[in-house]
Amino acid sequence: MGNCNSSSRQTLTAKMSHIPFERDNNGNTSQELEFQRDDDLRLLRIHNDHFFYMKNLRTKKKGNVLINMVGKKNTFEMELWFFGRIDQVRSSEFLLHPVNIQGSFLVRNSEREEMDYTLVVKNYCYKQDKFEILKYKINFNNGKFFVSTKQKFESLPDLINAFQEGIQRGIACQLTTPCQIVRDANIGLVAINRWELPRNEIEFGRKIGSGHFGTVHMGVWRGSVAVAIKALKSDSDLVKEMKAFFEEIRILQSINHPNLVQIYGVCTDNHPFLMITELLDHGDLLNLLRSDEEHSLFDF
């Protein structure tokens, strides 16, 4: 997003729609700005490390906007993974929050050169038994973007897409989801729409399970990521099941360990509600232990 300190009054575009809660976790009236995707927002000042103070040119209202919700129109700054000019300390703090899973990442401007970029990735270090933050310089030479000279791309989004598909060289792990920002204690948590995924990004495959709550399907997210899709029945009388469904979402969002199933997002804009999670190759543990593969798990 460039150096905002020297770019006051610049106009940026909303990457997503956002409807703030009326009040924050402390009961105070929300100071956040409401906007729709592709709204033009004028930067008035930098509010703090998390927010810009902006004016919605469509509604004429003013308020705070999370820094990664806006970018320059028709550029890769509109990608959810682009965070602009934030420093390495802040980017590490964002990624280390438990809401971000293994392989979560962001791209930021270099602190030295505005046109240089850094890929910042959250990776689990088994040797130290903890998450670490890895930083990779994204090089640009002869019209190509690259981390490793053995793998070059026409654009920065092409590089990121390949790394999300597991086609990467020069980095420690496959990229998963763009970094989620969680606000500080005085502001409260990001609303659930930070986890909302467009339904057109989800492709259903064969059914692999069912129950009173609904069904589970294999599927594909964004054309390349294998996922499990849990679909809640749309029956209006399933109050308990709906509560359990959202409680499961809440729990999975709070869990952050590479050996536990990870949640990628939800679709709650319409029925049926969907939960999109990591696909377990062998199904759940109980079914795995009941399968023929149990003979290869134990060797006495």
Automatic annotation (TrEMBL):
The keyword Protease does not apply. This is Tyrosine-protein kinase. Residues 1-14 have a biased composition (Polar residues). One of its GO terms (molecular function) is non-membrane spanning protein tyrosine kinase activity. Residues 1-31 are annotated as: Disordered. Residues 202-300 form the Protein kinase domain. It comes from Lepeophtheirus salmonis (Salmon louse). Pfam families: PK_Tyr_Ser-Thr (PF07714), SH2 (PF00017). Its EC number is 2.7.10.2. InterPro entries: Kinase-like_dom_sf, Non-receptor_tyrosine_kinases, Prot_kinase_dom, Protein_kinase_ATP_BS, Ser-Thr/Tyr_kinase_cat_dom, SH2, SH2_dom_sf, SH3-like_dom_sf.
